[in-house]
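can u pls check wat happens w/ adenosine-5'-triphosphate
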Amino acid sequence: SAKKIIVVGSTNMDMVVKTSHIPVPGETVLGGSFFMNPGGKGANQAVAVARLGGEVSFISKVGNDIFGKQSSQLFEEEGISTRYLLADAGEPSGVALITVDAHGENSIVVASGANANLLPKDLEAALNEIAGAGILLMQLEIPMETVHFAAKYAASLGIKVILNPAPMNTLTPELLQHVHIITPNSKEAEMLSGIPVNSIADARKAATLIAGMGVKNVVITMGAQGALILEDGRFEEVPARPVEAVDTTAAGDVFNGALAVALSEGKTLAEAVQFACQAAAISVTRLGAQSSIPHRNELIVSNLPRL
Ligand code: ATP
């Protein structure tokens, strides 16, 4: 049977505005529609896991405010265990200011708030929960010391650690040795490897360099070009599903959540990446972060965009 998935990460309230183009410094753009949507890479990935059929426990920190309460309620509605959703006494809930242009491209500023106060000591009460899981999924919107602590603990118990290195931060060899699969997008792969990543051929070179830093498996997401896998020294390319992109916000989050679900069900890495590309393709056809995350029953074959 499928193993439990633990997500340790951020919770934000996304404030999304649609605009003709993303303003340059000093520019004001009028006329976009606005909506709020619960987000944060941790929360998005936890919701993706739940909607795609995984059993998930989410360890995160919100403020003692209305956004925090809304998030908690929403997670419960999604069937996510909120036992380890903590409320910080001092900082407000994290927020993300997101601008989406006419082509579905986005630009994002995040104010971390309570997410910056999710510390290793907060995980102590959840160690038994982590110990009983099959997969630990993390991103980098929480303190690096917390990511490192959780990765080290999980890896020491043989739990597979998936690290989505977003937004990019300095990754030490001490952290990377605990990571089973790292999942950068092309820009993050560029920052990690130090070489430009525009094509799948570039991604192969970057993945080789990243694996050389001590991570076992590398999966680079390449937007509309799909994903590249480097598993135990062997490459595999998985094409994206051709869809009309409306809003790519959270495509990476859906990809990572889906990857965790498929792996928790015992699928191979190549099968899991195919499943993740299918789920992510559906999400880019919809506006918003969590609002765009598909449910498992949408991934039945007849509903999928054809290859
Ligand atoms: P974002 O930051 O916008 O959430 P990302 O930059 O983290 O996304 P991408 O590499 O852009 O990640 O996308 C993740 C996955 O989503 C891709 O590997 C692909 O499977 C799917 N995807 C993204 N964009 C498209 C697209 N235009 N058409 C089809 N699939 C897409």
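The longest strand covers residues 56-63.
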